[in-house]
Amino acid sequence: MTIQERIQEDIKDSMKLKNALRLDVLRGMKSAIKHKEIEKIRTLEELEVFQVLHTLVKQRKDSIDQFKKGGRADLVAREEDELKILESYLPAAVSEQEIRQIVAEVITELQVSNPKDIGRVMKAVMSKFAGKIVDGKKINEQVRAQLGS
Q: If you ran DSSP here, which 8-state letter would residue 108 be given?
C-alpha cells in the first residue's frame, strides 16, 4: 500500500470515527500532494510524497514557534496535535548521531577547516542523505559546530 492509498483509507476511517482533527490533517495532506502533482504534471513518487509531508511538518514547527512567541497556547496545542499526526506518516528521521558522523566524515574527506566552506560541506552532506528525511537546519548547526564558526 502506497502512502497515498494509506492516507485515503485513513480519511475514510476518520470520517467513520468522526475524528475532525485527524480528518482535517489528512485532507490537508492529500490536498498538498495533489497540488504538487498538478505542479509537476505527473503522479508523485513515494519519496516526493514524503518530501511534501516533510514540508508540512516544517510548516507546523514554524507555526508552533510563532504561536509560542505570540502567547497563543490554544493554537500551539492544535499545531502540536497536527504535527504528531503528520509525523506518523513519515519514515523515521535521521538521528543526530548519524548527522554528526556524516558531517565529520565529509569534513575529513574535503579537508576543510575554514568556516567559509560551510556551503561545500552542506552540499556534500545533503547528497549523502539523498532519499532520506533529514532536517537541513540540524545539519547546518552541526556543520557550523564542527567547523567552529
A: H
Distance CA 27, CA 21 (A): 10
> CA 98 → CA 5, 109, 124, 138, distances in Å?
31, 16, 15, 11
Secondary structure of residue 131 in the 3-state scheme? coil
Contacts of 73 (CB under 8 A, 6+ apart): 67
The total number of structural domains in the chain stands at: 2
Q: Are residues 23 and 65 in the same domain?
A: yes
Contacts of 83 (CB under 8 A, 6+ apart): 57, 60, 61, 64
pTM: 0.76
Question: What is the C-alpha separation between 96 and 64, in angstroms, rounded?
Answer: 22
81-133 pLDDT, tens digit per residue, is 999 999 999 888 788 899 999 999 998 998 888 888 888 989 998 888 877 77
Give the structural domain span for 122.
96-147
- Is the pLDDT at 57 greater than 70, yes or no? yes
